[in-house]
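G., the chain you wanted modeled:
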Amino acid sequence: MQAADLAAAGRRSFEVVCAPFLQAAAVASLDADAYAWWQSAPALTNELVLSRLRRMQRDGSVRLNATAYVLFDHSLERDMRSWASWRALAVWQANVSVGEGHACGKSRRGALCDDRREGTLTVAAIPLRDVP
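Predicted structure as tokens:
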């Protein structure tokens, strides 16, 4: 179901916010059950997002049961360092094989596409309440 269908049926709705995190956090209500992202340094790092969401949770603008679903790309050293520092807080994790080779042939993304042609991501669930 889409958000409008859920609302019409009297059920809770959802919204997807696709904006730079710090801008979205400044202008939109970001209260949610789940947050998902992959870091794109230097503007968007796991440390920045997790600490900001935890601060918002302490301030009461993010619900207490919120969970972050963070993606860590095994081909990126920075992601693997980040995963090593957050791994102990993960209550769930899964490795996911990715293959974007079929899309790369049609893409103009160049080297980025070559880097992501195939590989592995770790998806980890981190309860925000556990973030120091």
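The first strand starts at residue 34 and ends at 38.

Shout if anything looks off.
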